[in-house]
Amino acid sequence: SATSTDGQLIRGGQGNDTITGIGTDTTGTMATTTLHDIAYGGQGNDTIALAGSNFTRVDGGLGIDTLTLSGANMALDLASYGTQIQGFEKFNLGSGGNTLNLSLTDVLRQPGYVNALGHIEISGGVSDGIGLAGEGAWTTGTSQNVAGVTYHVYHNSSLPASNTKADVWVQEGVVVGANQVIVK
Fold first, then answer.
1. Which among 36, 6, 3, 42 has a CA at the least distance from the CA of 19?
2. 23 burial via Cβ count (<10 Å: 0-12, 13-18, 19+)
3. pTM of the prediction?
4. pLDDT for 28-41, tens place per residue?
5. 55-90 per-position pLDDT tens digit
6. CA-CA distances (angstroms) from residue 112 to 39, 53, 108, 118, 151?
């Protein structure tokens, strides 16, 4: 377990690591030419918690990794960060009115497309939201229950119905906007 102070490089080990306080650096700009926090989860089922939006890179590494939004009223648009955010199968929005926007391209960039989890999983509270945008229409008609938590399964119409590797599972209660960007 490690906590970042401004502009730090933190690497997880082979176990299940927790890295917190990422993204709070207020020096310089958000440009990738400025060194802000960098966090690599390494091996294991790691959690990296973003407390702000100024970071150079976060990467879950190997395992089933979670990116958590630990602040309030945070908005994370995966498309705007591109490859600065990689390696996460799970996104935890917390319950602070946080928002995550992603498209099929963003989902395919995460390893859930090829790893054992086989989908992207999003959890959060009723004050949180997710925007599913981009190519194809996102539809839901099925649910999954994991450890007592119900998730609505969203599938993108640009993929064959048999290809569920890019499905997005959203915890029941999280506000979802299909084919639009939600800003809370």
1. 3
2. buried
3. 0.87
4. 555 555 567 889 99
5. 889 999 888 999 999 989 999 999 889 889 999 999
6. 19, 23, 8, 5, 16
